[in-house]
Design goal:
heterodimer, A: 375 residues, 6-stranded antiparallel β-barrel, 5-stranded parallel beta sheet, 8 helices, globular, B: 391 residues, Aspartate Aminotransferase, domain 2, Aspartate Aminotransferase, domain 1, 2 domains, 14 strands
């Protein structure tokens, strides 16, 4: 277990500190465990706002100051690293491009993959650090032979292994998640922060997407991609409404469709498909959302890739539940069948496969097979 | 620990600390008429006389402020407003592009909000403003110049400006020249009376005095419009109850800075030369920023500024900090995000190169051990920072 590793060998640890309570407590725990910890705040916006607006997370000067204040209390050096350019290229532009292509990206996952455990980790290793520490709720388990496994956090309710599913074994070998080992509620983390004298103890949780200041994703996309009026059609292809840009919709979405005429059966209609090629949004009944299988691309494995089909549990979105699947790697693509049909699976999102609590690997959903062959 | 960031702030001199703490227990507003007030006023006026003597000024030319930033703002904004009030045509402000942000941002603000036309004077590759450049700028239209401001010595790269010659040019046209002498005081012979300057900024904490106290040396014929209005203290130019203990302490530090200046320039200058040699030996391709001449006429004796190709200054800072060496990249930062130094960009330095800077600034507590610590650590740190590269 990581606990043992921590006790036997102090590491030079770079703690990524967002200015929030989780990463502050994580850094404090790493320091308390005897590691030589340096805090770093990632400046991810070229023009950071001075103050937080609402409950968004980590990109303002105020957040940077909160992180610095926490580092000072913990008693560790603190730096701000400007990764705004990398973040813009690898996360923000990817986010926009994915929506433009009719998919639903997860920027937090992309940030872990490309920024925290790539750009940041690479620089940390080059500067002589052994590991990057974050406030994620997940566990890295070291096996007797030295290999690393990523497991769900002890506290399933807080588990964030889904957004870390993209990490490979090399990245895991240099990752430290001090919050994942103990069953801890958010209240306990806040109490611990309070006890440690960290002023961020009462800071509200961050949610939403950190680079969209006002939380208005649709507005952000409209500014970036412009308005492009197109048709909303039913499953037979009959036009029943118009939209101002197909990218503004997510599969499974029900609200905000603004279709005048009710469905023939009077039941609510959901977004079934988004086609950026002809700028069309297809809607239909809930039953048509049922997915029985999917294909996912760009698989990444924690450890060796499994050979042949296997049975796993799968998670399909950040706060989603688990579902049983059979998965097999075919020509570099992951073919997944669900034991029971699932709803609202959006291309662009990640599917993370688990064996018990262990993360087996992840891949990006490319296409789905519906129970009713409607779209 | 090797503290090599004296240009940021230098340890207080024991004599200055004693002068401060001695007076903290004494009551008295220097504007009051009773005995306590008179006692406070006497302390302030003696301090004013001491500082005036240390800086070659008359006592009435010393205007106490809260520090360098306030003195710079008062000089730049106050002189702009008063000169423009006397003649509305005077809206041009001439400034060197290598000024401290206290001047640069004040000047910029005048341009944004007060109708000033800001003109940045050309500098050479060492960041120096030449008198001919100032002459050319003023001569384009001597009647519309409100003021000129050129620092005495640069805080990042240590370049010393030809202040006397610049002041002569300004005087020819009747233009007031202000100089930020925050870094120069204690290192160079700073004589306000002989300089020909209209105004000059100094601050206590760079010479072993306390934080939060500084002064604008202000020629008697100038009445800048105040930035702070109130009780009319300090020639009606800077209102606010005087900080008697800080002023007394500032005067002690100022007197000692002037008395020890030659010793400082010689001994600390020699130590600085050793540090420069040590860094160049350890990292042969390190480039010295600013004027390569070690003479105090050209370069601050305590300043050593380097550029390390292929390194990020922040990485070097982190690595040296971990070795107990405290220095600076020299450039300003917003929210801690390193920006390429405006000083280096003004001297025409390649922006990538400008990211790999370190400023070592020595001071009265510096020792050979400090230099040896840098000599030992800098080579491996640069090698490692190069591996990390420029993100």
């Amino acid at each position: 277990m990581t606990e043992t590793t921590q006790r036997t060998r102090p590491l030079r640890v770079l703690a990524a500190m967002s200015g929030g309570v989780d990463s502050a407590v994580a850094a404090a725990r790493a320091a308390e465990a005897g590691h030589d910890v340096t805090g770093v705040h990632l400046a991810l916006s070229a023009n950071p706002q001075s103050f937080r607006t609402g409950a968004r997370g980590c990109c303002t000067i105020e957040d940077s100051r909160d992180a610095r204040r926490a580092a000072d209390v913990i008693g560790i050096p603190f730096y701000v690293w400007d990764l705004a350019e990398r973040f813009r290229e690898d996360v923000v532009e990817d986010f926009v491009a994915e929506y433009e292509a009719g998919r639903t990206p997860n920027p937090c996952l992309r940030c872990n993959e490309k920024i925290k455990f790539a750009a940041l980790l690479d620089k940390a290793l080059a500067l002589g650090f052994d590991a990057v520490c974050t406030g994620h709720y997940a566990q890295v388990v070291t096996l007797p032979d030295g290999t690393r496994e990523l497991h769900r956090a002890s506290d399933m309710a807080k588990d964030q292994s889904y957004v870390l599913g993209v990490l490979d074994e090399k990245q895991l070998a240099h990752a430290l998640f001090p919050l994942g080992d103990t069953v801890t509620t958010k209240e306990e983390i806040r109490a611990e922060a309070e006890r440690r004298g960290l002023a961020v103890a009462k800071k509200p949780d961050s949610h939403d997407i950190c680079f969209i200041a006002d939380g208005d994703t649709q507005g952000f996309l409209a500014r970036r991609l412009g308005k492009a009026e197109g048709d909303i059609v039913d499953e037979s292809g009959t036009k029943i409404g118009t939209h101002e840009g197909a990218y503004g919709y997510t599969i499974g979405q029900r609200k905000g469709l603004r279709i005048g005429t009710p469905a023939p059966d009077g039941k609510p209609r959901y977004v079934l498909d988004i086609s950026p090629v002809d700028n069309t949004v297809t809607v239909g009944p809930a039953a048509s959302l049922d997915v029985t299988a999917l294909t996912a691309i760009k698989p990444r494995w924690c450890g060796t890739a499994p050979s042949g089909p296997g049975t796993y549990t799968a998670q399909l979105r950040a706060h989603g539940g688990e579902t049983e699947v059979t998965a097999e790697l075919v020509d570099g693509e992951l073919r997944v069948s669900f034991t029971e049909a699932v709803r609202g699976v959006a291309p662009g999102q990640a599917i993370v496969l688990y064996d018990g609590t262990r993360v087996v690997g992840s891949a990006t959903i490319a296409s789905t097979v519906r129970a009713t062959a409607a779209v | 620990m090797a503290y090599l960031d004296h240009a940021a702030t230098t340890p207080m001199l024991p004599e200055a600390a004693a002068a401060l703490t001695d007076r903290l227990g004494t009551t008295g507003n220097a504007s009051s008429l009773h005995a306590a007030g008179r006692r406070a006023r006497r302390t302030v006026e003696e301090a004013r006389e001491t500082l005036a003597e240390a800086l070659g000024a008359r006592p009435s030319e010393v205007v106490f402020t809260s520090g360098g930033t306030e003195a710079d703002n008062l000089a730049v904004k106050g002189l702009y407003w008063s000169r423009r009030a006397a003649d509305p045509a005077r809206t041009r402000v001439l400034a060197s592009p290598v000024e401290h942000h206290a001047v640069l941002d004040a000047v910029h603000w005048l341009g944004e909000h007060e109708g000033a036309t800001v003109e940045y004077l050309p500098v050479d590759a060492h960041g120096r403003v030449h008198p001919e450049a100032l002459r050319a700028a003023i001569a384009r239209n001597p009647d519309d110049v409100a003021l000129a401001t050129v620092m005495w010595a640069n805080n990042e790269i240590g370049t010393v400006m030809p202040v006397r010659a610049l002041a002569d040019v300004a005087a020819e046209f009747g233009v007031p020249l202000h100089a930020d002498a925050v870094q120069a005081f204690g290192q160079l012979p700073v004589d306000f009376g002989a300089s020909g300057l209209a105004a000059m900024t100094v601050t206590a904490h760079k010479i072993g005095g306390p934080y939060g106290i500084g002064a604008l040396l202000l020629g008697r014929e100038y009445s800048p419009v105040p930035v702070l209005h109130g009780g009319g203290q300090e020639r009606d130019v800077r209102s606010g109850t005087l900080d008697v203990p800080a002023i007394a302490s500032f005067a002690v530090a100022g007197r000692l800075a002037a008395e020890r200046r030659e010793w400082f320039a010689r001994e600390i200058g020699a130590l600085r030369d050793e540090l420069v040699d040590a860094v160049r030996t350890a990292v042969p391709d390190a480039l010295l920023g600013g004027d390569p001449s070690p003479s105090a006429e050209d370069r601050l004796p305590a300043n050593a500024h380097f550029m390390f190709p292929g390194c990020e200054g922040d990485s070097l800072l982190l690595l040296l900090d971990a070795q107990g060496i405290e220095c600076s990249t020299g450039s300003a930062c917003s929210a801690g995000i390193a920006q390429p130094s405006h000083v280096l960009l003004a001297t025409g330095t390649d922006p990538d190169l400008a990211r790999g800077t370190l400023r070592f600034s020595l001071g009265h507590t510096s020792t050979r051990e400090d230099v040896e610590a840098v000599a030992k650590a800098i080579g491996p740190a640069v090698e490692r920072a190069r591996t990390a590269g420029l993100t």
